[in-house]
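Question (not urgent): is this output format expected?
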Amino acid sequence: MPDTSRWITVGELAESFGPDNNALPPTEDLAGKTLDLHLENGQVLEHRFGLDGKLAWMTTAGPGAGQGAEETYSATKVRDGIYFVQYLRHLERATTIILVLDPDQGIATAVIGQLPEEAEVRRSLAERVAQGQELTAVTATFLSGALNAPFTADTPRHARTGELVGRRVEYTYSPTERYEHIYLNEDFYTWQCLLGSEKGYADTDRCHYYRLADDLYLFAWREKIVPTLGVVVVDFDAMRTTGKICGYQGSGFGELADFPVGAHARLLNVTGRD
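Got this back:
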């Protein structure tokens, strides 16, 4: 029987997921392009995608105007015309940015994720419950946006959805790593590791679902035991995923482990709801 008394770090998880994984290959479709992202909170961010895997971003209007930096980014093509872009924002502590770009519709969804400081991680779940807080200290903000045009009340959005609720899905990340997800309701899902470095581990965590297109969803989860943010796009037409996992490299709170993931999906069953 596996020893589940010790939860592994995200850095150890990254090492397990690395060899012979099913992550989608990166795309250079965005290289050389400039996109202005107009977010619903009034921010406008210019993104210049370089030819060398670098991304220069600048907030040109709204909160944080004038701030900017150059980061290393990665992008995958989810479907024709839809892209998953991610990078770490080094001007802010333990912060990651995920962009789902949908140029055909002229829209995007931005996810701003941040890992907690040590003091927050050390607080007990009982204390968090007593103070009316979420069990996880990992935060994620979801913002709708328009590409190269102002965001207005008429701008389409990738909307929150409950279409995944009731599905039980098996995800194979590599020949050695396989997991099962059960999407319980609009706010929580249960996962268990069937094969791999976390075999025997299971938990129920906070999650978020957004509908991108027919049979295409943005799924994010925030774990409470080992502070972890996962963000993937699930394609139930191609039956595969693409995305990333972000957490701390080791037991400390300085170095990040941030790595791409992708899986082949198999729908096991669907539980009906009243």
